[in-house]
Design goal:
Blueprint lengths: L2 H8 L9 H11 L16 H19 L5 H10 L7 H13 L4 H11 L4 H15 L7 H14 L3 H8 L9 H5 L7 H15 L1 H6 L4 H25 L3
Amino acid sequence: MSSGVWGKLGGAGFGLAIGGPLGGLIGLAAGHFLVDREGAVFGPTPRDVVFTTGLVALAAKMAKSDGVVTQSEVEAFGKVVTVDDEARPGVERLFDLAKGTTSGFEAYARQLAGMFYDEPTLLEDVLDGLFHIAKADGAIHEAEEQYLRSVAAIFGYDETAFRRIEARHVRISDDPYFLLGVEPGVEDAEVKAAYRRLVMESHPDRAIARGLPAEAVAITTQRLAAINAAYDRIAAERGLT
């Protein structure tokens, strides 16, 4: 989380309230209650605020899902959610509050799904960020995998889509075609088309152009690296140029 995003959260007042469980969480963290954003005169809630708050909330709930918050998970959280020293106390407060709220992770996930329904790539960014945190201790545990699968289902991903995302983080398949979402027997043109589409969807410049926070840019950068690696393997096998 950049200090810029945290500044918006901490000093949000009524203007940046987003309502729902995420709005309530921001209100707790900021020390005051916020009203619903709907119909307010300040314009739509910045997506960097929604993205970062949702990622922090779901990461906190996931850390609690297996009953133990390891140091490696805390360190991984710090890498995915980047902050400077000035903003860190506020971020830690938000994380701790999210762990203890009565709202379940389902409520946070449903609100994110509703707010990003028109840009599902952002939901994939959230899932990728959660995977990075979950695998920090060297393994994704059963409770964490079930948690991630449940979040993905709320986001609208079926089992095949979930496993494709998971394959970027866990070696469940050594098939680069699976990562690109194509069958091994397809023509070269279809491989290239699938690759170009994924690159366009996942390129960090797209996140930067939309004004998203550093978290989203870092996550898409890592996703693009996995896509490039899969395509490079296929290109080498097929002699593609």
